[in-house]
Amino acid sequence: MAESDTPTPPGLLPDTVHQDTIHQAVKPGTALLRLETTRSRAGVLDGAWWPRSRDIAEELPALITALTEHVGPITRVGLDATAWRGIPTRLVIDDRVVHLDSFPVGDDTVLVTRGENDHFSLLVVPPDTSADAARTAMARAVHADNVTQAAQILIANVPE
């Protein structure tokens, strides 16, 4: 099997493709997500998400479904209202109510709550980012010893 034939694990970005290829290869409603692979959660960020648009009602269900598979039921999501179009106060996703809160966290971060008080902080890669820049930023965000804030990761890895 050639290296290019090696399947990419679900939720991870392939190593050598262009942004258009990724967005065409990913079915609508699929989240491009990376999570830190250690249980320590000692880094600043717990994961990274690359939505394809700023329409939260369209993008969030796939993220919540993916997160629920890996970390359990999600109860709340905190986002910056200036970064997303039309944030409702709640969505029903996979037959569960997920509450959405608007916080001034910036367009580079989403806060996710599992249960009552277990919070996950995810880097949000802008939708129009190239595949190479997205892959680099996402990998940096999930590095176990990462102490760099989301905004700084994007400044360093995602050209404007």
In short:
The chain is of the alpha/beta class. It has four helices and seven strands, in the order αββαβββββαα.
Estimated share of beta-strand residues: 15-25%
Oligomer: single chain
Strand line-up in the sheet with most strands: 1-2-7-6-3-5-4
Indicate the low-confidence ranges by residue numbers. Answer: 1-29
H-E string: HEEHEEEEEHH
Biggest sheet statistics: 7 strands, mixed
Backbone shape:
globular
What number is the mean pLDDT? 78
Layout: helices, strands, pairs:
Elements lengths: L18 H7 L7 E3 L11 E3 L6 H16 L2 E6 L10 E4 L2 E7 L6 E6 L3 E7 L6 H11 L8 H8 L3
Parallel strand pairs: 2-7, 3-5
Antiparallel strand pairs: 1-2, 3-6, 4-5, 6-7
Give a structural overview.
This protein is an alpha/beta fold and 160 residues long. The chain contains four helices and seven strands; from the N terminus they run H-E-E-H-E-E-E-E-E-H-H. It has helices spanning 19-25, 56-71, 131-141, 150-157; strands spanning 33-35, 47-49, 74-79, 90-93, 96-102, 109-114, 118-124. The protein has a seven-stranded mixed β-sheet with strand order 1-2-7-6-3-5-4, with helices on both faces. A hairpin with a 2-residue loop joins strand 4 (90-93) and strand 5.
From the structure above, extract its key features.
160 residues; alpha/beta; 22% strand; disordered N terminus
